[in-house]
Structures are given as structure tokens and as C-alpha cells.
Write a structure and sequence with these properties.
With 349 residues, this protein is mainly beta. It has one domain: Methylamine Dehydrogenase, Chain H (7 Propeller), CATH 2.130.10. The chain is built from two helices and 30 strands. The protein has helices spanning 3-12, 19-24, and strands at 29-37, 40-46, 52-57, 62-67, 73-78, 84-89, 95-100, 105-113, 117-124, 128-135, 140-149, 151-156, 161-166, 171-172, 175-176, 185-190, 195-200, 208-215, 218-224, 240-244, 247-250, 265-268, 272-277, 282-289, 292-300, 304-310, 313-318, 322-327, 330-335, 339-348. A four-stranded antiparallel β-sheet has the order 3-2-1-30, with no helix packed on it. A four-stranded antiparallel β-sheet has the order 4-5-6-7, with no helix packed on it. The longest helix is centred in the first third of the chain and has 10 residues, at 3-12. It is globular and about 45 Å long. 44% of the residues are buried.
Length: 349
Amino acid sequence: MHRRELLKYSILMGSLNLLNCSKAIKKEVLIIGSGKLNNKWVLSAINSTGHTLYQKKLPKRAHHISKNKNNSHGLVIARRPGNYARLFDSKTGQTIKEINAPNNHFFFGHSCFSKNNIIISCGDQTSLGKLAIYDLALNFEYFIELNNYGPHQIELINNNQIAVAVGGLQTIERKILNMEDFKSELIIVDVSINTIINRYKLANSKLSIRHLHTHNSKVIVAAQLPDRDTLFENLNTALIYELKDNQLKAIIHPNWNTFKQYIASISFDDTHLIATSPKGHTLGIWSISDNAILFDTQLSFVDVAGITQFQNTAFWSTGLGYSSSKYNDVIITSKQEIHWDNHWNTFYV
């Protein structure tokens, strides 16, 4: 089906419920993200049909939602220049505990749960990066120094190791100070010994690694070109890379320019990799088989950003308040009263 026809078809389907999807998914699925509702920031949960289950007011803009795989707890994190984190019950959205960032530090919008701790990416007022380590009750314990600027998304690789996407950009009040010589990298940290064990850089030093995803000990990162004053339409620069054979290897796409040099979210499981670009109004899908990642298809959705997957079903969101899902190659779209932020996560209750 032509992309325009597919987009038109998905919008026309917007009023339908995902009846087939609901029957296929045995567990209750909660898709949780943050966003803006009537000029106020909220934490919001929907089910697999797109029905809103709850919305809870937040102090300021939030970004990513991380989850504790051992219980129903989630953590919603402020996006810089915010400084709060909220531990909540994913079933109800009720707050369990709220904390502020350590003195003179900002949270950078991402966190993850390890076996014994909660880890939050943060930085001081110059953007010098650190990992703030908390116990599971959200009591601050200590910092792990990253010795680089602008850490962003972090994900657990296994029980002891985490992957950290470090953008490398030093900013003060959102102004970039080191555009000409920033050093972006993927950092692997062993939190059991509080030690950086590996650093990986991209061959293209103009790219800033901002987002990543992990699954079954595999790591895939997404980058962007942060220089907003330069046109890159003809560069066709790869934006997604797999950590393989101890290096970051580019993933193939026939026309990277359609992503407008920006990836908002990525997600992958055993069968598919999905990436979104709100600037390019584009969602890309790759098939994964026999250790190969091959470009599959591309869809158009205005301001598409959040992405998550569950049992062969992909769910994605837009800044216009739409959520969509792909189940058995049928795309169904529904409307919520919220303008979603960049990230989603899936909880099973």
C-alpha cells in the first residue's frame, strides 16, 4: 500500500478499538508516558485500545518512564532543566515517593532500574555528566563520574552492566558551548564495581549519541546531528548503530535523510527494530533475523516520537495526541487528550 494511502487508512481506523489485539494479549497492558494536557504536565497511562486509564499531574515537563521488572513500580524523570523524579505505582499512577536532584544538579530525563539500585542520568550546571545512584527507596547513595558532557538515555544490559548514551555537548541554559569539538560516546558501566569498563565512539564525530535500547544483552544506539544551523539534506548519514564485534556498526537504510538527522526513540525485540523521527514525521521498521538487521518499511505520522513493543505488537505516539499500534500488519490509530512527550514504556499488570 502507498505510504499516503496507509496513513489515510490508519487515521480512518482511529475510532475503532483493537479488538483482535486485546484478544491476542493475555496480560493487561499499560502503556505509560508523559506529556502536556491543557498546558499542564501529566503522567498518563492508556491500554492497548488507546483508552486513557489515568492522568496524574506532574510539577514540570517529564521525559522517560523506566520500570522495575520485579514489581509494578515505575519512575518518571524530569527533562532538563527539571530536577525531580517520581516513583509511582504503574497500576494506579499513585505517587510512592518524589525526590529532587542533588544540589546543583539536573536530571537529564532518563533512568533505569538495576537489581539493587535506581540509576539516573544527570549533570551539574555545566552539563558535566554523572550517574546518580539511589537505592530502591530512592535514597541518594553516590555519583559515578562519566568525565564527559550531556549523558542522556541509560538502559540495563544485564544484572551488572548499563549502557549510557552520552551526547558530549556542553550546554549552559541550552546554549551549546563546544559544537566544534564535542566528543559523543557510548559508555558501558559495571555498577557492581562502579567502574566504566568500555567507551565506544562513532566514526562520524559530528554525530551526538542521545538514545539507545537494550534487549537480551544487545545494544543499539541512535544519534543526531546537533548543528541546527547547517543543512544536512545531502549527507544521508546513518543514524542508528549496533554494538557488535566490539564496535558500533551502522544499520542500513536506503535514505537516512527522511529522518531529518534526528531520532527521538528506538526500540527492538527479537524480530523488529523501530525508530521514530518527529522532525521527519517518519517511523522506520527493520526486520531482525539470523543476526542481521534489514530495512523493512517506513510509515508517515506527523510528529511521531514514542515507541514501545509487546508480544509482536508495536505502539507509538505523536505530539498531536495520537497513539497507533501495528498488529498483524494492520495499523489502528486512536486519539487521547494529551500531547505525548518523546518516550513510552510498557507495563504488564
